[in-house]
Design brief:
heterodimer; A: alpha/beta; five-stranded parallel sheet; 5 helices; 45% helix; B: mainly alpha
Amino acid sequence: MATIMTVDDTASMRQMISFTLNSVGYDVIQAGDGSEALKLARDRKVDLVICDLNMPNMDGITLVKSLRALDTYKFTPILMLTTESQADKRDQGKTAGATGWIVKPFNPEQLVNVVKKVLG
Amino acid sequence: MTRLALPNRWWLWAIVAMIGSWAWTVPFVPIGVAAGSACATAIAVVLIAGYVVRRRGTEPTLASYMAADEEPEQRAPDELDSLLSRSEEIVPIPPVDQILKSMESENHRRRLEDLLRRWVDVAHRYSEAALVLRKEIHTVVQHTEQAADTISSSFQAVINKATLQAREAMELLEGTQGGLSEGAPQSLTDFIRVSDERLTKMADEVVRVADLSVQMVKELDGVQNRAQAIDGFLLDVEKLADQTSLLALNADIEAARVGEYGRGFSVVAQEVRRLSQRSHEFSDRIRQHLKEVKVGLHKTYGDMRNLSAADMEHALKIKDDVILLTRSLEDKNREVAETVGRINTISREIAQDVHNVVVSLQFHDITSQKLRGMLEPMDDLRRTLFHLMQETMAAGKNLLPQKEPAVPAKAAEASDAQTGSGDAALKKLRAVGAPTNGPSVELF
């Protein structure tokens, strides 16, 4: 089964995402911010990244750009999961190379559907 | 109401006018006329200068304060000084309207100072309040984060356990409805079916055995009759022996009558009699055995009769019991199936509830972000207030000498009245903030 990495500075959010995706059989690893996520992503290959926008140390957009710069993550789906819903932020995410944008609070069913869709 | 006023250094004005007009007229008129004309000119110049200066002195009034965007407080003392010095130097009793005007400008200046102090005071209080608010927001964010973490991990544990429980219950219940493998019943349904089959078979067997018993009883009847017949045959045998013995006795008598010649025959007759006695003995022994056999058969017959009746009754009862038991098991099984159905429904409902909780639990992340968003404008406000205070204090050092503004009593009262709501808000905030640092349990 696919391995998914969730990146969020809020522990409860990471737990929610892990719980939701574990329940349908995905392996989930967690990272507290962009730089930690980048380190984890270099250590092992993950099949999907779900990341927050506003985080300490390294924000979501920078993380997406950094991941896209790596050969192994050029085509890996990256979903942004954030409270931000403005069009300009979305555009920023799109330009940086994000695959999708989910506005918090997420609905577990919807998240699972999106994950299934992007993982093909 | 106009009064003559003399300008500063009026004598200088007079001398200059006098010399000017005298020097100019000397070549044309006699010297006496020139001197007179010069004196008149000097008087006129002094009077005109006095009037002009007085007009100009009234000009810097309210309008100049209102318009003044550069050091109004600087200008005000200058004007006051000039007013004061002039009245001191020149006019022992200054004109009333001048005094009124100077008082008015002085009042205005004071009002502005008061206002400024109040503004600085408000700025000071609100920059403090902003700091307290910042801390409080931070605490709220931390507390909600901790609470949300605890809630979500506990919730996750609860869900995991509930899932496990449901799965085990389902396995257990599904087991009662499952299939048969390698002869051993795997489910309650199979168990019921198999036990029903076997119990029925057993009951049938018992019934068959009971039938056989009945048949055996009948056959035993036959055997007893035969035994009776044997008894009759034995009587015949005994009769035969008796007759043979009688025959031997007669032969012995006949042999004795013929004397020596019949001696041999007599021996034969005695042997025949002995044989007849022995057959009597045999017959007795056979009768004895037959009697025992008859007693045994009779007993067996009674037992068999009882047995067959009891067996039949028992077998029928077992069959009824088996039917009842099977029905009750089937009922139980139906109940189990219904329970499984209900558990499935509940599981679906739980799944929906889980979704709802997952959605709701994200409130923390959203509120935290919103609260953190409030921090930046608040810091900005605090910085702005701080700089404004600094600049104001630097601009009016004499006005606001200390950091904690030493507001004059009257102004302080006024500012308290003005900023009362802000102050109350600040106190309230501190009161709210206090318990967060206190113990979790407090008894009074």
